[in-house]
Every structure is written in C-alpha cells, then in structure tokens.
Fold:
Amino acid sequence: MNIILLSGGSGKRLWPLSNDIRSKQFIKIFKNKAGQYESMLQRMYGSIKRIDSEANVTVATSRMQVPSIKNQIGNDVSISVEPCRRDTFPAVVLACAYLKYVCNVDDDESVIVCPVDPYVGDEYFVALKKLDGLVKEDRANLMLMGMEPTYPSAKYGYIMTKTRDDVSDVLSFKEKPDEKTAAEYIERGALWNGGIFAFRLGYMMKKAHEEITFDDYADLYQKYDTLKKISFDYAVAEKEPSIAVMRFSGEWKDLGTWNTLTEAMEENTVGDVMLADNCENVHVINNLGMPIFLMGIKNEVVSACPDGIIVSDKVQSSYIKPYIDKIDKEIRVADKHWGNFLILDSDDMGTTIKLSMKAGESISYHSHELRDEVWIFVSGTGRTVVDGITQRVHTGEVVTIQAGCRHSLEAITDLYVIEIQLGKDVHAEDIKRYSDE
Amino acid sequence: MNIILLSGGSGKRLWPLSNDIRSKQFIKIFKNKAGQYESMLQRMYGSIKRIDSEANVTVATSRMQVPSIKNQIGNDVSISVEPCRRDTFPAVVLACAYLKYVCNVDDDESVIVCPVDPYVGDEYFVALKKLDGLVKEDRANLMLMGMEPTYPSAKYGYIMTKTRDDVSDVLSFKEKPDEKTAAEYIERGALWNGGIFAFRLGYMMKKAHEEITFDDYADLYQKYDTLKKISFDYAVAEKEPSIAVMRFSGEWKDLGTWNTLTEAMEENTVGDVMLADNCENVHVINNLGMPIFLMGIKNEVVSACPDGIIVSDKVQSSYIKPYIDKIDKEIRVADKHWGNFLILDSDDMGTTIKLSMKAGESISYHSHELRDEVWIFVSGTGRTVVDGITQRVHTGEVVTIQAGCRHSLEAITDLYVIEIQLGKDVHAEDIKRYSDE
Structure:
C-alpha cells in the first residue's frame, strides 16, 4: 500500500499547543498502550505500520514541519517537502511525482491520499486496505472514502451518492452547507468528505501533466512556486466521471478545537495536575514544569505550555481564533530535527535556552553578527567546532563563542546544553549558516 | 508614634503566590499611585511613613521573612526577629524589649501593635494616631481598636463593649462565634477584634517581667525558645481591668482568600493577560513570562507564578487549603536580602537559576560539597571571590566553581547572573557558610 499522508494546517485553534509553526498533529496527548503520550501523527503513522508493516508511507508537508516530523517519527520516514503552500492539488501531484521519480513506484500501483490528523480507530486502516483493493479492481479511476454522518454538520463538505450501497458511484460534491441543508443531504444518503482519495499512480501523473508542464520531480519542485493554488477536489475529483465512494461508519473525528480534542483524551489530565473533587467535565493539559490545581471548575479546558496558558469554557473554545491572532509572542518551545529547544528566560540583556539534542544529531556550522553565546554542557558528550577548532565536550564544560565566530555542535550521546545568548539585539534572525542542515 | 507591625502567618490559602515561606503580605498586587504593584507590607509601611514621617516602625517577624521584608521595604527598617514561633505574647514582649533595650525607647512612650496584613485606607492611620493619643491621655492601661462589623462573621473574635460610644470600656472578649451568635453580639454593639493594641512601653515591660524572667533584649532572645506559647489576648488583654476600645468604621479588610483578595484589586488583571469579551467577574494574576488567555469564564480567579497555577471558582477558593497541603514541590522563586532567585529549569543532571542581585548587596562566602557551579554574568558588574582570589566580573564573563571551593559574589551594579548547578545530588541543603549573612 502506498499512502500519502497530507500534513498541513498550521493554526491557532489549539493555542497554546498549536501555533503558526506547530500544527495540531504534533500535540502529544494520546496515551498509547505503553502509557506514553503520542501525537496524532505518531498515532496515525504507528497504526498504519502496525496494520500493514509493508506500507510505503510518504508524508507530504511544508518545510516548516520537517523537523517536527523527523523528531516524532524518525529520520527514516519518506517526506515530500512542498517548497511553499499551493493547496492540495499541487501538493498531491508533488508527492506523486516524488513516489514516481524518487521512490520509483510503478504507474500501475495504487496510492491512497489521506489527511494526517483525524482521530481514528483500527477499522479505519482496514477500510483503507479495502479502498486500495477497489483501486486495484479498477472499480473507478478515482475512489473516495466517505464518512457516514452522525449529525447534520455544517463543518464538512458532502459527497452525494447514486446508491446507499457500501460502494457507490458519486453523483456530486457539495460545499459545507447550513445545518438544514446538511440534514437534507443526509436524508438522501450523503457522506462527509474526509479528503481521502485513492487512485493508480499513472492516473494522477496523467492528470498532473494535463495541468502542469514538468519533466520530473526535481523540475516540478523547482517551479512549484509558480503553480496555481487549486484544491484536489476542484482540479480532479469534481471533473472525474469514473468516480466512486466507499462508505465508512467507524470512528473518525476531526479534533480541530479544544472541545473536540479533549473528547478523544483517555484521561482528564496530562502532566502535573490536581483536580478538586468539585470539578466536573474538565480537561487539563499541562506541559509546564509546575503544578496546576483546579477548584470548583466545570465544563472547561485548561492547556499550558511555555508559549502560554488558555482557560476556556469548552463550548466557547471553538471561537478562540480571533483572540489568539492578537497574541504576537516569540515562540519559546519548538522541535528541531536535532531535538528541541526551550527558551527559559529572556530579557533585554540576554536569553537563556535549554537545548536537548539527540545522540548522532548536529547543529550545523553558523555564526551570529550581534550576539555572543555561551554553551554550558549539563549532561552528555558532544563535539564542538568553533572557528575550525574541534573540541570534545562533556558535563561541566563551558564553551564561549564570540559574535562573528563560526560554530557547530554535534551530540555524541544525548546532550543537554544551556545556551546563553548575550547582547542587546538578540533575535532569531541573527544567524548566518555555512552548510545545509 | 512607635508602631510594632506583626508580620506572621505563612500559609497556603493564596497558593501559588503564598506558601510555607512566602506569606500573603509579600504578594504584589496593589497598584500604587505611580502605577507600580506593591504588597500589603509595602502598602502598610508606606502609608504609615506618609501619614507620620516620624513614626518609629518595627517589624516583628520570624527569621524566614527577613529577606522578603528587607527586599521590599529596604535594609534600614527596624526588625525584631523571633528566633522561633512562640505566639503573639512572646512576640510582642520581644519586640517591646527590642524597643526598650536596642532602640532606647522610654518606658513612658506609647506603642501600637498591629498586624501587617489588613487592607486599609488612610483613615486607618488617622485612627491609629487617635489611639496613640488615648494612651498618652491614660484613658486605660490597654487601648484596643475594634472594627465596626459589616456582617455577622464567624471568622473573627468579638470585643463586647460597655457602651456604644466612640471609646468605651471593654466588657469581655468572645472567641469566633457561629453566625447566629455573631448577630446577637452585633446587636449588643460588639466589635471585631482586629488584633490592634496600644499601651505605654513600661506597662508592657511590667507585664512581661510578671511572666518571664529576663535581664534585657539579648537575654530574652537567647531564652526565647523556652517560652510558653501564649496569645497576647489570653496573657494580657483578657486579664486587664483597665482596658478600653476605640470604634473604627473605616475600610478594613482581611484578604485571606483569593475571593477576598481579588475584591481589593484595582483592575481585573495583573501581568500578561487577555480576557475575551464573554468573561465576567474574573481576576487573573500572572507572574509568568507567558500570556494567559481566558475565554467564556465567569466568577473565577486564576493565579500563576513559577511555583504553580490555580484556576478556582471564587467562592470555592476559600476551601483550597487541604488540597494545597498535598502539593509538595520545591519552591522555584524567592526573595533574598540580596535580591531574588528564580529556578528556570531543573532535572536529574542540573539546575539552571536566574539570580537578580541589587547593587551593593552580597552573597556571602560559602561552598557546596556535591555540586559544581557555573556563573554566567549576563548584565552588570560584580566582584567574585573564589578560593581567596578576587576577580571583577561583567557581561559575558564565566566563572566556574568546583565542588568544595569557597566562593562569594558582590553586586557592584545591579547584577543578572545565570547560575548552573551541576551534579546528580543538587539540593538546597548542600551549602556550608563561612561567615554570617
């Protein structure tokens, strides 16, 4: 099975855990069987691999998400990186070109495209395999999976079907309706459009070449920013006469707001949280190193991380976006391909940062114009290069780096480093890189 | 006017801002006329000094509070330090002995004793002056100030009076009653006992010598731990036949819970806080370096500092203590006589601390058995002594201190230092001091 997982959508609806660079699929709040918290991405990727260990999974995403993806599911995952955002049709074409030209997938093979962020059970992956089978049987050029609606939602697009059979030809697509219209659609057997498509690779390459002139993956990648922004539905699905949909009635949730996300949590709290007995229907996610205590609270979600804290009525949590758009703060915690950083403190005179690096990873050669830096090695063993001089470093070592001086850092074992940036004009943009990461 | 401010009562009712070592009188949430936040202590001390610049104020407190007091109202304040807790009678006697033997106050002079933590307006201090005048007129051996009750509270003791005059002889004292009994007391003209007493110094020294054998302040201090725990009311007030009370009907609030404390806040928020329009009757105090956002919240208090976060229904906030007693976390932020510290991060391998030192202050000569330390000077100028070697330090300087090595630090200007403690057994008790602070 070839699966393209679309990992898109940065956003603030799950602030402070999600923001412009940290998408909701990276939030770790789902407890796995080993008792560890995992993200939607880890849950989805892990389930696919568990149910079909041979599955060839490619994540289609933007450059910004690559560090988080590698950090969460490892460096070996196949990633098709969009140089810029161009909506779903160019993204699917780029990922398909990646499969064809980089991974040498045959035109005859089937490909399933699905979003990375719904909350689903194992039966979802069984259904994906069935969908894959329908492509191989040539049931239609383009196969969809549609979700059996559970209520007349105004949040989803609808797929109108010819019959109520498990697999039916598609009549038409409907944009997000109002609730009354949604109820009428459902009456007529319509399904929610969850953005799940399957096809043979050759089919999609043909569609791609009809719209875009390109030679191969590298050529497409290079001209990607010149492509028209157009959705897959609009460019392909709505025009395709040979199109069918498979009904799916298993668990499938779109966890886009705090209210819906907390419904999928196994326990009411994550992290260091104490709830008084008089709390009811509250969920608390605490990613801070200090306790949170709730007393006499009902129907609320509290979520805290180094970027901020939200306390919201659950129902009202769907409407936070315009407020959060006004918050314009430096992001204090982020995943990197080499591990992660956390800004512990910053003021006019300096910034103190905790770097956690994974064994074998490196921060490449770079320099800063305006700030001096000091690295204090708290634990682990590493190797620094400062102005060409290589030095092995371990617990207790202090390395001072003057402004303008080139430096790099490699983690030999897992490394925990405190970095202190000194100077009045410390900002993230003050960096000059000397080799690609 | 000689005033003894009793600064006692550590407690957790205002957690996380108050705790076992940080009392509520040090919480800075009252905006002064200059727009700066000040604590109950600063507000009380500043008001006394403003209304009577000649007032001789002595703070009677425990050793633990001395750094916070000096930090908040300066090094020049007169402090009578109790070597251990022995209830209010020994505390008042010790402070009076301090006035007599250390400050050379005459036996004839009047002394007012009052708690440091009620929330009061200027008329309170005018009343204290009037109380002082009544002592000087010898209206009675012991003068009290009683608060005109505003409701039949079960939280206070009551003073029963002979008449309803502005100044009346005292009939008796009543312990905290139930509400029904409280209403009966009020019907009979009773007053709340706010713990405010005034007398001539000689009177109190006589009472002291009747109960305790001691020569002078030093002698009393030295045997303080052998004294019986007994309240001032029980030891003196309830036995004194020449006792009168002055009625006070001005602003006087006991801000002992989040619910009552927030009533005295001028604005609904302190710190980086955003309230959505649909919030009602909420107060948020944010001492963290990250934003807090509230959406659709009503009748709640949120308070956050590096030691923890509380989200509580306002009425329920009176009942938090048994829950908070279960929280047993290292205190991450504290005032010291030299400034303050904030633990930015700590784990098995090391602890990162931000030290903010005030110009002219010092951390005295000490060493640690088990941990190495690194000081990184982020801003300011200071002087270190490490194993006898004096060094001037400024921005960007790094000083490494091995375990066992004696070291001290003096702030020449205001200093901002990052201290990194390295070692598996880092704990606050690992310190050996070589001179008194």
